[in-house]
Amino acid sequence: MDFKKKIYILLTVGIFFLSLSGILIKLVSAPPLITAFYRMLFTVLLLTPYFFIKHKSKARYFLDYRPLLVGFLLAVHFILWISSIQYTDISNSVIFVALQPLFTIILEYFFAREDLKEGAVIGIIMAVIGSTVISVGDLYQLGDKLFGNFLALSAALFASSYLFIGRGVRKKLDYFPYLYILYTYAALFLGIGVYLFKIPFTGHGLNNYLLFLALAIGPTLIGHSILNFAVRYLSTSIVSLSILGEPIITTFLAWLLLDEAVRLTTLIGGAFILGGIYLASVYNNHQKRRQSEVKQAQS
Question: From the record, what ranges are coiled-coil (predicted)?
Fold first, then answer.
C-alpha cells in the first residue's frame, strides 16, 4: 500500500472519530455548559505537557486579543451545538452545523471582499432549500426541534466566525500552539459561564466524566489532529470536503446505536445541504487556487 492510500485511510479514521461527537453528547446527562467546559478542560490538560515542552516560547500569544476573541466564539459555538442536540435529532444537528463552510464563504464575501462565483451562489441556494425542507418537516414540533435546528444553525455561524477571525493569528503561529491557546481561552470562558449560571462543577457522575474525557480524546484530539496531519499531504479542498462525511456517519451511528429514526425530510433536506456545501466549497477552492496562480504569475 502506497503512502497516499495510507493518508486517505487515516483521514477516514479521523472523520469517524469526529462523527462520534454527536453520539457521545447525546449520551451525556449533564447540562450542555458543563459538557462543553469539561470537553475543553480535559483537552487542554492533555495538551499542556507537550505545549510547554515544545512551544513554551509561543505562550506570549496568550496576550494577543485575537485568540481571546476567537476562544470566546469557539466557546459559544460549543454551547449552542451541544444544546441543540438536546432539542433536535442528532441528524438534524450535525447537518445544520455542517453549513459552516457556507457561512465562511459569505463572511469572506462581505468582510474580505472575495467574489461569490456562480457555483458558490447555487450551493448556498441549495443549502437554504435543504434547511427549509428539514424545518418544514419539523413544523409539527414548533417549540422543540425547530429551536434545536436554530441552535445548530447558530453554532455553524459561530464556528465559521472563529475560523474567519482566527486566520490572521494562524499566519503567525503554528497550528498546535494556536489550537492550544484557542482551547485554553474557550475552556476559561466556559468555566466562567458555569460559575455565573451557578452550575456545580462536581457531582455529575462517573459516567458523564468518562464521556467528557472521551469527547476530549476522540473527536477533539484524535479527529482534529488527523485532519491537521492529512492536510500536509492532501489538498485543503479534499480534507475540507471529506468533513461532509461526518453528518452521514453520525446519522447512521445514531440510527444504529441510539435507535434514532431518520425522517424523509431530513434525508431530502440533508442531501440538498451537503450537495450545496460540496458545490460551493469546490467553486470557492477553485477560485482561490486561480487567484493564487495569477499572483504567482505576476510576481
Answer: none
pLDDT in tens, 201-254: 999 999 999 999 999 999 999 998 888 778 677 766 567 677 778 888 888 899
Q: What is the amino acid identity at position 109? A: Y
User: 38 and 95 in contact (C-beta within 8 Å)?
Assistant: no
pLDDT tens digits, 69-110: 999 999 999 999 999 998 888 888 888 888 887 888 888 778
Place of cell 442528532: 90
CA distance 40 to 108: 28
**What would the DSSP string read from start to end of 134-150?**
HHHHTGGGTTTHHHHHH
**Which residue's C-alpha cell is 486566520?**
167
**Global model pTM greater than 0.90:** no
CA atoms of 132 and 137, how far apart (whole Å): 9
Residue 221 CB coordination number (10 Å): 16
Q: What 8-state DSSP symbol labels residue 59?
A: G
Radius of gyration, CA atoms only, the chain: 19
Written as nine digits, the cell of 89 is 435529532
Are the C-beta atoms of residues 276 and 100 closer than 8 Å to each other?
no
Residue 260 to residue 38: CA distance in whole angstroms: 26
30: left (phi over 0), alpha (psi -120 to 50) or beta: beta
Q: Where are the domains of the chain?
A: 3-298
Tell me the residue length of the chain.
299
* Nearest residue to 20 via CA among 253, 260, 226, 261: 253
Task: Calculate the alpha carbon distances from 275 to 12, 103, 252, 264, 267 in Å.
Answer: 19, 15, 18, 16, 12
Q: Which amino acid is at 185?
A: Y
